[in-house]
Amino acid sequence: MPQLNNHTMSDQPLPTGQYGFSATRVDQLGASEYTLVTIVTDVSPSVGSFVKEMETALKEIITACKYSPRADNLMLRLVTFDAGMRESHGFKLLEQCRLDDYKGCLKIGSATALYDAAENCITAMNVYGKQLTDADFGVNGIVFVITDGEDNASTLSIRHVREALELATKTEAMQSMVSILIGVNVQDQRIGAYLQDFKNEAGFTHYVEIGNANARALAKLADFVSRFISSQSQLLSSGAASSQSLAF
User: At 69, which CATH number?
Assistant: First the structure.
């Protein structure tokens, strides 16, 4: 069950997989348009050496978004994955994201169900985006999938991730969606090539990579993510995809 939800949110099933999602109830929304943000991060054993820095990066992302002129138009979902996936919280209004709640939110587990987590997060965004669009809200989305290794535990395949991304572009659930695969602590060229291939085969919009997961690099990652969220939200009315630079 989600750890950081509240009474304004409800649980919802998904047509694929065994894990659904949760989201703010439509009757609790006051703005006319929203950018849906999903951050899904690897918590397999290899992440253990820099998990505290990752938590700090999450808090920096949320802090930066709170200062955005579009803060009232952002909803954030946080998911972690190892052999399975866990929703820390569903699509939550940014104003309800308390920084203290993210201390200790990344629990190191075992293995890497990368495909399962990616498919869930994209499908959840499609489903919730359609609900908001049907209720006459303007909606777009952005998803960040952060990992340091290869999938070795999923029940789904790259095909399922590709189909979820294709559905996002073919339906009218959202005006646009940007999907970014982020390789973190990628020091093995084989892993970098694997993630680049995953990006291409699944159809992610972008792949970016950082070599060393030290505090400085993850701070730059936090700045990159927050800037990209702001850019995507500002372009909501135009229906365009973000043109924010990929440079860290």
Answer: 3.40.50.410
